[in-house]
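During the no-cost extension, the postdoctoral fellow (Dr. R.K.) reprocessed legacy sequence entries with the updated structure-token encoder. One reprocessed record is reproduced below for audit purposes.
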Amino acid sequence: MVNKEAFAGTLESGDILIQISPSEEKGLHIELQSTVAYQFGRQIKQVITETLEGLDVHDARVMATDKGALDCTIRARVTAAAVRATGKDVWKD
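Re-encoded structure tokens follow.
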């Protein structure tokens, strides 16, 4: 459950800025800003969705500002933002 707004990432080339905030509506609502959205927008949104669902986050608003990030970077930024927004530390055993 997303308790507060959280950010991860930068607006540098090759990175992505992820903002996660609580949502009163059910489901994940992803807004993507990217110069490559026409080519890779579906893939970027899929990576964000799969990462959040894997972290048991199902209801949230996500604003993603992409600057050409690879999938591994997207997963890392989404995970970091989700940990900050939920308070659930996924790295602990």
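The domain at 6-86 is CATH 3.30.230.10 (Ribosomal Protein S5; domain 2). The chain is about 35% helix and 25% strand. The remaining legacy entries will be reprocessed before the final report is submitted.
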